[in-house]
Design goal:
- The protein is of the alpha+beta class.
- Among the domains are: 59 residues, 2,3-Dihydroxybiphenyl 1,2-Dioxygenase, domain 1 (Roll); 52 residues, 2,3-Dihydroxybiphenyl 1,2-Dioxygenase, domain 1.
- Helices cover 15% and strands 29% of the residues.
- The strands form 3 sheets. Strands 4-7-6-5 form a 4-stranded mixed sheet, with helices on one face.
- It is globular and about 50 Å long.
- The chain starts with a strand and ends with a strand.
């Protein structure tokens, strides 16, 4: 199976670059595929900007921030970030109130989290600095774990996410 001649990772059913139609060549009509992960938040623009910088994603056309002082109706409703090399998107849906997750225990445990990967421990350390500078809060540091080096963070809205070394 291929997408515009680019191999597809069959386990994840995604192509490295999206087709204009949004369909994967050879994908059965009845097959379900992940399009995007949506995070509820009380500041869609702020959280989208955090993840745009952290993941180096791009805004979907029409979702870019307005000029300074301009109106931002999408920034108070629904925004989408796209992976510049293809694959799934990350969207942000603004809600009026949202209790912060109290990971790993507490009144509001996480219901989902993002797992992000890097190539090695050096990259893990570099991304730690970036994540914290962008507003992430470190919740757990297992960067010294020889089997699975990782760090767990809360994003500015309180959603937990992990950065770990792939294949460690």
């Amino acid at each position: 199976m291929s997408c515009s001649g680019i191999p597809i990772d069959r386990a994840n059913l995604r192509c490295e670059r999206p087709r204009p139609s949004g369909k994967i060549v050879g994908m059965e009509e009845t097959m379900v595929a992940l399009r995007q992960v949506v995070l509820d938040c009380t500041d869609a623009r702020g959280l989208a900007e955090f993840y745009r910088q952290l993941l180096r994603f791009d805004y979907r056309s029409g979702d870019e921030p307005p000029d300074p002082g301009g109106s931002d109706p999408n920034g108070h409703d629904w925004l989408v970030l796209q992976n510049p090399v293809g694959g799934w998107c990350l969207a942000f849906q603004q809600v009026e109130t949202l209790p912060e997750a109290t990971w790993p225990e507490g009144a509001y445990p996480q219901m989902a989290h993002l797992d992000l990967t890097v190539a090695d421990v050096r990259a893990l350390d570099a991304e730690h600095v970036r994540a914290v500078e962008l507003g992430a809060r470190l919740l757990r540091d297992r960067s010294e774990d020889p089997e699975e080096p990782l760090r767990v963070y809360a994003d500015p809205a309180g959603h937990p996410f992990c950065i770990f070394v792939a294949g460690a």
